[in-house]
Design goal:
Elements (H helix, E strand, L loop, with lengths): L3 E5 L11 E8 L2 H10 L5 E4 L5 E2 L4 E8 L4 E6 L3 E7 L4 H10 L24 E2 L2 E2 L4 E8 L5 E5 L20 E11 L10 H9 L7 H15 L7 E2 L8 E2 L1 H10 L6 E4 L2 E3 L2 H7 L6 E2 L2 E3 L7 E3 L5 H19 L8 E2 L1
Parallel strand pairs: 2-5, 3-5, 4-20
Antiparallel strand pairs: 1-2, 6-7, 7-12, 8-9, 10-11, 10-12, 13-19, 14-16, 15-16, 17-18, 18-19
This protein binds uridine-diphosphate-2(N-acetylglucosaminyl) butyric acid (EPU).
């Protein structure tokens, strides 16, 4: 374990933004993590996981800790259920593929989401009708005040839509070390209700889908809509889908009868931010080396060499325009640093 100075973070964030860390260290074990916190007590620290949910707008004047804890273990199992622990530094999609190779069900709809296991609970990652919280049993965290390892159960985490206590009260107080998942070994429960999955499975001519088929369908849908961060820098959905009141929705629908929406409860309607941004005219807009993805308006992209400030400015322009046109606030999903 070696602390390096003045390191570019370009390859450590999926937006591919070239900012520098004042200091940088890759941490491979809990003991290393504890020893850094003891020896570097006074230096400000910045925790970096997969770098897939952040927009870096400036150099990081701190010691960047790259969490590189690796390992996947079955901790216990019954006839039908298996508990699998994955360490924080495991790549999310590679972990999902591991579960599918073992025929363990529950994570197939979350295939191809960028990022690492350790950051997945922070924003309760979700896609195609499934969220992390559906299979999350617990996680172990390092309490940064006491340097003790603690366990958070599912009910302790305050999971919500792209939200958890790790974004709220517990922010900056813990480092997630590993996550324990409760998965099925048989009688897998398939979530194929999400429209695009049904039609993709039909297209694949699959009549009785397996969890592996669902994963393949999800991968194919994602690849057709979402840019691969290895090719075009991006952070997935840049904004959250706004949830508005029924009154506000009826007014919107009056002006735009075709507006897609999901009813969450009597007075909560979710409207796709992608639709609002597209209708505001931003889809596919290119401003030099950055812009809005041409197939999914929710995704802002860095074509190479853009600065975080450029992308932040574009996001603010989008927010302002959407507010002016629809009277709806859309909040960033990514963390702006
Ligand atoms: N839409 C548009 N224009 C666009 C994009 C979407 O009109 O440019 C419309 C679509 O036609 C559809 C609706 O919006 O009627 C929903 O679109 P989609 O199914 O693509 O999903 P989304 O709501 O835009 C969310 C997640 C994605 C996740 C998909 C699939 C959020 C913020 N985003 O997007 O998550 O993959 O559902 O479940 O909730 C991510 O978080 O990084 C991410 C990609």
């Amino acid at each position: 374990m070696q602390i390096q100075n003045n390191i570019s973070l370009k390859h450590y964030n999926t937006f591919g933004i070239d900012v520098k860390a004042k200091q940088f260290v890759s941490v491979n074990s809990i003991d290393e993590l504890k020893s850094i916190y003891k020896s570097e007590k006074h230096s400000p620290k910045f925790i970096l996981g997969g770098g897939s949910n952040m927009l870096l707008t400036k150099d990081i004047d701190a010691l960047v800790l790259h969490i590189n804890l690796k390992g996947i273990n079955i901790t216990s199992q019954t006839k039908d259920t298996v508990f699998v622990q994955a360490k924080a530094g495991e790549n999310w999609h590679e972990f999902v593929l591991w579960t599918l190779d073992n025929d363990f069900g529950g994570l197939e709809n979350l295939s191809l989401i960028p990022g690492n296991v350790g950051t997945s609970p922070i924003q309760n990652i979700g896609a195609y009708g499934v969220e992390l919280k559906d299979t999350f049993e617990s996680c172990e965290v390092l309490n940064l005040e006491t340097l003790e390892v603690e366990t958070f159960k599912n009910s302790d985490c305050g999971f919500g839509y792209r939200n958890s206590i790790f974004k709220q009260n517990a922010k900056d107080k813990y480092i997630i070390l590993n996550v324990l998942f409760k998965l099925t070994k048989k009688h897998h429960i398939l979530n194929t209700n999400y429209g695009a999955i049904t039609s993709e499975l039909e297209h694949m001519k699959v009549l009785k889908p397996t969890i592996q088929d669902v994963s393949k369908a999800v991968i194919s849908i994602r690849q057709s809509k979402l840019p691969n961060p290895k090719e075009i820098g991006n952070s997935g959905s840049f904004f959250k889908n706004p949830i508005i009141s029924e009154t506000a929705f009826l007014e919107l629908q009056n002006n735009f009868p075709k507006v897609p929406h999901y009813v969450i409860s009597k007075n909560e309607i979710k409207v796709p931010a992608g639709w609002l941004i597209e209708t505001a005219g931003f889809k596919g807009k290119k401003l030099g080396n950055y812009g809005v993805h041409k197939k999914q308006a929710l995704v802002l992209v860095n074509y190479g060499g853009a600065s975080g400030k450029d992308i932040l400015e574009l996001s603010r322009l989008i927010q302002k325009t959407v507010f002016r046109l629809f009277d709806i606030n859309i909040d960033a999903e990514v963390n702006i640093i």
